[in-house]
Design brief:
Strand order of the largest sheet: 3-2-1-4-5
Shape: globular
Largest sheet: 5 strands, mixed
Structural class: alpha/beta
Number of strands: 8
Distance between the termini: 35 Å
Order of helices and strands: EEEHHEHHHEHEEE
Length: about 170
């Protein structure tokens, strides 16, 4: 089975987890290392902790799942921007934040200069990441998963049904 590194990055409560052979091996929030409550950014120290706990180098990671997909709900985002005309500073901040998310490979190179990342980065819609993170590491073959939180990827909740290795998202709400 592939080695998967899961990342919650570039917004509050940044964190990392690692799965070996389909099992959650380690997980940590970056704020525990930096001692800054709700720290936002690239969770390099949490990643380092997870890799050490799993006993694998970054070069052995096959997949990175990043909990945001800037393409998700793009039409709803555009309609909202046209109707509400947000402050230009907010738009610039969002674009800068999105640019950071596209450079995960560069972040790895800076944080881990002696260990090259060779895997693939997957941008996962925010709520699908929540649903998958609870279902795929659970001991259940069949389960309902629910995600309700702030406003990730321009939606605030989702639910789905998991069976075996499949997760079928039933609804995402704004």
């Amino acid at each position: 089975m592939p080695t998967i590194l899961g990342l919650n990055a570039y917004h509050a409560d940044s964190s990392a987890c690692i799965l070996l052979d389909g099992k959650l091996t380690a997980a940590a929030e970056e704020e525990r290392f930096r001692r800054i409550k709700h720290w936002a950014g690239f969770p390099s120290q949490a990643i380092d902790y997870c890799l050490r706990e799993a006993g694998v180098p970054l070069s052995a990671v096959d997949h990175v799942a990043l909990n945001s997909d800037r393409r998700a709900n793009v039409l709803r985002k555009a309609v909202y921007a046209l109707r509400n005309r947000p402050d230009l500073a907010l738009i610039v901040d969002r674009l800068r934040n999105a640019g950071k998310r596209a450079s995960v490979e560069q972040e790895f190179a800076l944080a881990f200069p002696s260990d090259r990342f060779r895997g693939q980065v997957h941008h996962i819609e925010h709520h699908l990441a929540h649903l998958a993170s609870c279902f795929h590491v659970s001991p259940f073959d069949d389960a309902v998963a629910v995600s309700v939180d702030g406003f990730g990827d321009f939606s605030s909740a989702a639910w789905g049904v998991g069976h075996g290795q499949q997760l079928d998202v039933k609804s995402v709400s704004g």
